[in-house]
Write a structure and sequence with these properties.
2,3-Dihydroxybiphenyl 1,2-Dioxygenase, domain 1, 14 strands, EC 1.13.11.93
């Protein structure tokens, strides 16, 4: 997409985000051709699901939104780099949401993460581009010795990931609500280039030393730039896509991450990927010579999004995640099989909209009475965020070696507040966003019918 509006026209955050997502997708297609196959297969699956299920296929977003939807992933090494990327994403109306500590997952990846995305429902509907952004925790002694930490900090201090003019334009775009067309074009070119894979030679010895800690640590701290690590389309039937990709001869990871396919409502997020590919890279050897070799770092992820889970629903998911035996059978035994059951049990988030006409009968005092009496209809709220166990599972399935974590050493006290300080902005609580959206819809129904009080969910009484 090229910004070609007259100079006087304002290119707002939504237009910047939409254009950036398209350009990044084109870049990744050139760099990782198998990604193009993934997008093509996702489009085929979505068309078939739409033809089979009709309107129901769009219950969690229009086909236009699903087709355009992407999430990316990047990795940075220092708080200053995180603050810079937060500014760049802020220009595109993308805000940090959620705190994810992948150090504490089974994969033991030495990063903490947040996701930059739109937070308003109308902005998500226009373009829901999101970027899962990980920051290396260089002083966590479970992964890095004091000596390695010192040398890693020194290496990272010498690089500049984002050109100063890009950051300046991003600050201006946030302040002014957009850029004129000429500056928008400069911004988009620079932002896309910042995430391209660098042709510079990699110091083999340094990269190899960091790889002994973690492939992710090497990918972040072993090179002089960052890059888009994966770009993820959304699919309406991830099991079908998995089978179709294998039929095309593309090696997939061993399983689909997240809840199983169990016959009930899709909940939270399911993800899978094709395996990281051997990409040509140049290496600088100890004697100063440059040789050609390959690295397996980047992979092709795909996701299927379900209904956003409430804290109760998330607790159920976390419990069932560790249950032994057949996962689908476990879910069928423990979870309601319908959206209405999920709503009544307060396991998932839904919005309400007024019914077509005012019913006769008593004034409702609960959400169940609103729905049963025809006062309102419910619609699921799509899950816009991520699952640490799933993200770590994808990472682990594509790593060339296991991460090394020494649990006898002290970890670094890196938490939500610390990451907010590093990013230089508030990190939104995803539950608060879903709660606010749900509450606003309840209030709107109450106001529409002139009800004396807002009806409540069973768990709120």
């Amino acid at each position: 997409m090229t910004v070609s509006a007259p100079h006087r026209d304002r290119v707002d955050a939504t237009a910047l985000r939409t254009a950036f997502a398209a350009r990044l997708s084109a870049l990744y297609s050139r760099e990782v051709p198998a990604y193009t196959t993934l997008v093509d297969v996702a489009r085929e699956v979505n068309a078939d699901v739409l033809a089979t299920r009709g309107e129901d296929a769009e219950r969690l977003g229009s086909i236009e939104r699903v087709t355009a939807e992407r999430h990316g992933a990047i990795r940075v090494g220092t708080p200053a780099e995180l603050a810079a990327v937060a500014t760049v994403f802020g220009a595109m109306g993308m805000h940090p949401v959620g705190f994810y500590d992948l150090r504490e997952t089974a994969a033991a990846v030495p990063v903490v993460s947040t996701a930059f995305r739109p937070v308003a429902r109308d902005e998500l509907a226009r373009n829901p581009f999101r970027v899962f952004t990980s920051l290396l925790v260089v002083d966590d002694r479970r992964f890095f010795t004091p000596d390695l930490t010192t040398r890693l900090r020194e290496f990272l201090s010498r690089r500049t990931l984002f050109a100063p003019h890009l950051v300046d334009l991003a600050r201006r775009a946030e302040r002014d609500g957009g850029l004129d067309a000429d500056d928008a074009e400069v911004f988009l070119v620079a932002a896309t280039a910042a995430f391209a894979l660098s042709p510079d030679a990699v110091d083999r010895a340094w990269y190899g030393e960091l790889s002994q800690v973690s492939s992710v640590a090497a990918d972040i701290g072993g090179v002089g730039s960052t890059h888009i690590n994966h770009l993820t389309p959304r699919v309406l039937d991830i099991d079908d896509l998995y089978a179709r990709m294998q039929a095309r001869g593309i090696e997939m990871i061993d399983e689909i991450q997240g809840p199983p396919r169990w016959g009930g409502p899709d909940l939270l997020l399911r993800q899978t990927s094709f395996r990281a590919l051997a990409e040509p890279r140049r290496f600088r050897e100890a004697d100063g010579s440059v040789t050609d070799d390959t690295l397996r770092v980047r992979f092709g992820e795909v996701e299927a999004r379900g209904v956003a889970a409430t804290p109760r629903g998330r607790a159920l998911y976390d419990r069932l995640l560790t249950e032994p035996g057949d996962a689908a059978a476990t879910w069928r035994a423990a979870a309601p099989a319908t959206e209405r059951g999920m709503l009544d049990a307060d396991l998932a988030y839904f919005t309400l909209a007024p019914g077509s006409e005012r019913p006769d009968g008593p004034v409702p005092t609960t959400v169940a009475e609103l729905l049963d009496g025809g006062w309102a209809v419910a619609a699921p709220i799509v899950y816009e965020d991520f699952l640490p166990a799933s993200a770590a599972g994808i990472f682990a399935s594509n790593l060339t070696g296991s991460s090394r974590r020494d649990d006898e050493s002290d970890g670094a006290a890196v938490d939500l507040a610390w990451l907010e300080g590093a990013a230089g902005r508030t990190i939104h609580d995803p539950y608060a966003l879903y709660d606010a959206e749900r509450a606003a819809s309840f209030d709107a129904v109450t106001a529409h019918w002139g009800l004396p009080t807002t009806p409540v969910l069973p768990g709120d009484r």
